[in-house]
Amino acid sequence: MEYCLFTEPQQGFSYDDQLAFARSAEEHGLDGFFRSDHYLRMGEGDARPGPTDAWTTLAGLARETSRIRLGTLVSSVTYRVPAILAIQVAQVDAMSGGRVELGLGTGWFEREHRAYGIPFPPKRFDLLEEQLQVVTGLWSTPDADTFTFHGEHYDLDEAPALPKPVQSPVPVIVGGGGPKRTPALAARYATEFNIGFVSEDVVAEKFAVVRAACEAIGRDPGTLKLSVALPTVVGADDAEIDRRLDAIGRTRDQFDDGANIVGTPSQVAEKVERLRGLGAERVYFQLMDLRDLDHADQIGAEVLPLLPR
């Protein structure tokens, strides 16, 4: 089992806030620090100091950490053309000594796209499939060869296919709740399938679907890592839990919905054990308040020692 911190910096947090969380993850023995790839705050509240770019942030963290995995959960295909994304990820992989993972998805936040003038086509699964083909194709092309691709949305003519990432392959995460295309794309292109923000019965269902998608193309389902990402609030007691919920504008009734992770360290461990029983091999603890560094430290110091490995 692997355990990562997962954050939403677009909610109003700086690079330094993210660095502190990444260093907490590294210090306490967690496996990774992942962040969303968004530019616009969701919901009401103060968005200052303003957005940070995901891959610029990860490049900085690559030089300021030494062990943890670093990645996006997930980058949207609407933000970057795939060849440039492949270069960015390969460069950050080199800067980190081979610790980067690319989460890639269709994107969903239409208001964000309108705010920043980013095109938001109504159909994006074809974009995702072609981006997965291009990115993985560029990375896997032999050093002396070039990469050519002619698709409906992207055309590459003898691209040099450089730089090469340190890892071969770079882990690619595909996730979501789509019933057909998402699991099919994960089975064909991904090293990890992620499902987030759903109850345990839905986790079990989605894991079964993606395993079946692997079998349908002759892939061993055991070669696809299965993971869950869930909003998390931990506290030593009810008072601490309620204080943290209040800080993110939620009540216990709103947050404790059967999907999210909420409770004392021992209660969190019980939840994780159930997720492992469903097949999860990695858990992303999504922490919404990046100013509460004690929360990250508590997960590393008090929760992690209770978790199965």
In the sheet with the most strands, the strands line up as 1-2-3-5-8-9-10-12
Which range does the strand content fall in? 15-25%
Which residue ranges are poorly predicted, with pLDDT under 50 across at least 5 consecutive positions?
none
Average pLDDT confidence is 97
Main beta sheet: 8 strands, parallel, barrel
Helix content: 40-55%
Total DSSP helices: 11
Mind explaining what this structure looks like?
- Helix 6 (181-189) packs across helix 7.
- The chain is α/β, with parallel strands linked by helices and 309 residues long.
- The strands form two sheets. An eight-stranded parallel barrel has the order 1-2-3-5-8-9-10-12, surrounded by nine helices. Strands 6-7 form a two-stranded antiparallel ribbon.
- The protein is 41% helix and 19% strand.
- It has helices spanning 15-28, 54-64, 82-96, 110-116, 125-140, 181-189, 200-216, 238-247, 252-255, 265-278, 293-303; strands at 2-7, 32-35, 69-72, 75-76, 100-105, 147-150, 155-159, 172-175, 192-196, 225-234, 261-263, 282-287.
- It is built from eleven helices and twelve strands.
Summarize the SSE layout with pairings.
Layout (H helix, E strand, L loop, with lengths): L1 E6 L7 H14 L3 E4 L18 H11 L4 E4 L2 E2 L5 H15 L3 E6 L4 H7 L8 H16 L6 E4 L4 E5 L12 E4 L5 H9 L2 E5 L3 H17 L8 E10 L3 H10 L4 H4 L5 E3 L1 H14 L3 E6 L5 H11 L6
Parallel strand pairs: 1-2, 1-12, 2-3, 3-5, 4-5, 5-8, 8-9, 9-10, 10-11, 10-12
Antiparallel strand pairs: 6-7
